[in-house]
Design goal:
The complex is a heterodimer. Helix content of chain A is 76%, strand content 0%. Chain A is an all-alpha fold. Chain B contains six helices and twelve strands. By secondary structure, chain B is of the alpha+beta class.
């Protein structure tokens, strides 16, 4: 773009604005790509046989990650990454494809909105959101996959499997929240030019 | 909040939720075939899961002998007791001969199976939310794997393919309450249904239902598949651990220990074809 002689705007400012806009887009794309790759990596880790397993329980690592993204980035980006995280979980799960995707998308949208209008974006909020998500998700799965079919002893699924997995997931939430927040702040510094 | 509800972003999110709901409805009617989006995601994640599973297996295998030293010692003691018990059984000549003849017959059948086509697969992922040890394997429709294909190991039956993508498939195990396998006792020829329960799945066991009350089944009997359109005949299932009446007293129920280590299996065979598969005469 070449400034015209009669152009009231300085050519250098317009060029700087163009470069800044391009750099901003590049940084945003890089940030969102890193989020997606991180979710993919966490999904691989959570489904690797034997990894992070304690007494038969394994954490769902993508859930606190997606909720942390929603808290920091807002409801729109959070909803998209919540859907992606949920669909990744659906790949290997014995549930209908889309179940975890829909559930996590709704919770991430809710988390994003609550942080904007009502709550602080901190570890306590993350723990609260993850706890609520895991309990609701576990409750719905227990009800529709086990309870309603009348199998014997299904309460053990809730007590010895769903609840320990939910607890384990809540316990690892601070680590993932701090990681996502660190990434978010790193890119915010670059975007604001600090 | 009102601004958000009237914004384009809100409409996009609503559309996303409708699409996700559509995925759920579509998967109900998919008949075990993974949806296009699931197949696409599967193609991306399967190679990564393979690599991760191999790395995890290698590292775990290196440390296992040190971490499991106590377990191995106890297992050694238990096996010594078991050997002594088996030596005692050999004193019963007629029963030992009968068992020997049956085992030779079964071994001969397995060695000479010409009516099976199999595909070797590796376990690449286990869902942390699953109760019955279902897993994903690294073979899919491009390798000839189909929905409902039986899955076995060299030791015995593991389960069946419950969903298939292009390069991966999900396997539901015989420990699952929703899996039913037609089977029979090789000694008494009694027919029943092998299925899982929540209680027994934790211990890696399953049960055999609908056995006749007058059945002569005893612990130690070998259970095989009875054949049909879903499973080929004479696939090893497991051994009887105990026999007792069901809760109503109308039939007997046997607790069965699968031959295959369903909870820890790492490599499996998918039976992609067998004589009678999918026939309607079952």
């Amino acid at each position: 773009m070449q400034p015209r002689a009669s152009d009231p705007w300085r050519g250098e400012d317009r060029l700087c604005g163009y470069v800044t806009m391009k750099r901003t887009r590049y940084l945003l794309m890089l940030k969102y790509t890193i989020y997606a790759v991180l979710l993919l990596l966490l999904y691989i880790l959570q489904t690797t046989p034997g990894l992070f397993e304690i007494a038969g329980a394994k954490p769902m690592l993508v859930v606190p990650a997606a909720l942390s993204i929603a808290m920091l980035e807002g409801e729109f980006v959070g909803g998209l990454y919540g859907a992606l995280a949920g669909l990744l979980c659906d790949l290997g799960a014995s549930v209908l494809f889309g179940f975890n995707g829909l559930l996590l998308a709704v919770f991430c949208i809710g988390a994003g909105l609550l942080v904007i209008y009502l709550m602080h974006c901190d570890v306590r909020g993350a723990l609260l959101f993850v706890t609520a998500t895991m309990l609701v998700r576990g409750g719905i799965e227990y009800l529709f996959s086990y309870r309603m079919w009348g199998y014997e002893g299904v309460w053990k699924v809730l007590v010895f499997h769903i609840l320990p997995m939910s607890l384990y997931t809540v316990l690892v939430t601070p680590l993932l929240f701090w990681l996502i927040r660190w990434l978010y702040r790193l890119f915010q510094k670059k975007l604001t030019g600090e | 909040m009102k601004d958000f509800l009237s914004s384009v972003r809100f409409k996009i999110l609503v559309a996303l939720l409708i699409v996700l709901l559509g995925f759920i409805i579509a998967s109900v009617y998919s008949g075990g075939t993974a949806m296009f989006f699931a197949r696409l995601l599967g193609m991306v994640t399967t190679p990564l899961q393979q690599a991760s599973a191999e790395i995890s297996g290698s590292v775990g295998g290196f440390f296992e002998k040190y971490l499991r030293a106590g377990e191995v010692f106890e297992e050694n003691l238990r096996l010594r007791e078991e050997i002594n018990e088996l030596r005692g059984r050999l004193v019963d000549y007629e029963r030992a001969m009968h068992e020997n003849e049956q085992l030779r017959e079964i071994l001969g059948v397995m060695e000479n199976r010409q009516d099976l086509k199999i595909e070797l697969a590796s376990v690449i992922a286990r869902d942390p939310a699953d109760r019955f040890y279902s897993f994903s394997i690294d073979k899919g429709s491009v390798d000839g794997v189909k929905y409902l294909d039986p899955v076995v190991t060299a030791d015995g039956l593991v389960g069946y393919v419950s969903e298939v993508g292009m390069t991966h498939a999900k396997v539901s195990t015989i420990l699952d309450v929703a899996v039913d396998v037609g089977a029979y006792d090789s000694a008494t020829r009694d027919i029943g249904i092998v299925t899982g329960t929540v209680d027994l799945a934790v211990e890696g066991l399953c049960q055999m239902l609908y056995l006749p009350r007058e059945s002569a089944m005893v612990p130690g009997d070998i259970i095989l598949t009875s054949g049909g359109s879903l499973y080929p005949r004479d696939i090893m299932v497991g051994t009887v651990q105990s026999v007792g009446p069901n809760s109503h007293g109308t039939s007997l129920v046997a607790v069965v220990k699968p031959f295959a280590d369903v909870r820890n299996v790492k490599n499996v065979f998918v039976i992609t074809w067998f004589e009678g598969q999918g026939s309607e005469n079952d």
